[in-house]
Design goal:
The protein has eleven helices and eleven strands. It is an alpha/beta fold. Helix 8 links the parallel strand 7 and strand 8. This is Putative HTH-type transcriptional regulator YwqM.
Length: 299
């Protein structure tokens, strides 16, 4: 068992795709396969189940992953300490929801790549419900999410931006003419929503429940873009972060429905494990994120 094998194992565990892992590691696919096979032989157990074109971690692979993260982190610490250099090399794994991957992080990633071209960045789009676990298990170095302020004892959370959530519909939707939208106005409407457990969905549904309103139909999507497209053709009303619909509102394709209830808002935060070593690379990324995303205070 060597560090190259462990690095390959971690990359494959995150991508669950031999081709993608090979691309990220700059290997040919056969090298990834050979290193995983050698690691499995050394440990005497299978780490991945091969299911046709798909793979998944076995129970042994799940157990190995956090140890792999610890070993690779310690190796990076040792390398930096011995070299006496700033250590702006290596790999940084970032987790984020689809919304933030699409609308907030591209500028951060671009700036970081320009400043630190020797660092390999791995961006892992993940469901909201998985991000805390990925950070806690050490599968990602840092994660970005939109949520109410986080107070988890094992995680460090740093607030960046206030994110507003809007109720939107197509421009020709009947409710687009209303001067105020009451919870009762939505009782017979189709609501287009993100995954269960999403913070702003929970906030909105809490308000409806408090008013005793049960919408006739709720359609659940994993993709923000799918929700937008369905809203544009008039399939229903969507609850979405303002950053995802700015263009469509400016173009007049979507309209903001004037919600009469409590404003729905979240905080964009970056989180990392409190026991995580803040390597020079991670510290540099945190600072780039702050420079690009922290909301300026008004004097």
């Amino acid at each position: 068992m060597d560090f190259r094998q462990l690095t390959t194992f971690r990359t494959l565990a995150l991508t669950l795709n031999f081709h993608q892992a090979a691309e990220q590691l700059d290997y040919v696919q056969s090298t990834v396969t050979a290193q995983i096979q050698a690691l499995e032989e050394d440990l005497g157990t299978r780490l991945f189940d091969r299911l046709g074109r798909y793979i998944k971690l076995t129970e042994a692979g799940e157990r190995l992953l956090p140890y792999t993260e610890q070993l690779l982190t310690i190796a990076e610490e040792a390398r930096t300490a011995v070299s006496g250099q700033k250590g702006y090399t290596g790999t940084l794994t970032i987790g984020a929801t689809e919304t933030l991957c699409t609308y907030r992080l591209p500028a951060v990633l671009h700036q970081f790549r320009l400043t630190y071209p020797q660092v390999r960045l791995l961006l892992t789009p993940s469901p909201f419900s998985s991000l805390r676990r990925l950070v806690s298990d050490g599968q990602v170095d840092l994660a970005f999410l939109m949520e109410e302020p986080i107070t988890a004892t094992a995680l460090h959370a740093e607030s960046l931006l206030a994110e507003s959530i809007l109720l939107v519909a197509s421009a020709d939707h009947p409710l687009a003419r209303y001067s105020a939208i009451l919870p009762s106005d939505l009782e017979n409407e189709t609501l287009l929503m993100t995954e269960a457990g999403c913070s702003y969905r929970l906030q909105f549904q809490h308000q409806l429940n408090k008013a005793g309103i049960q919408p006739t139909t709720i359609m659940e999507f994993e993709s923000i873009e799918a929700i937008k497209q369905c809203t544009l053709i008039g399939m229903g009303i969507a609850i979405l972060p303002a950053i995802t619909v700015t263009t469509e509102i400016q173009q007049g394709k979507l309209v903001v429905l004037p919600w009469s209830g409590e404003p729905i808002g979240l905080i964009m935060q970056m989180i990392w494990h409190k026991q995580k070593w803040l390597s020079p690379v991670l510290q540099a990324f945190l600072q780039v994120a702050r420079n690009n995303l922290v909301q300026p205070t008004r004097s």
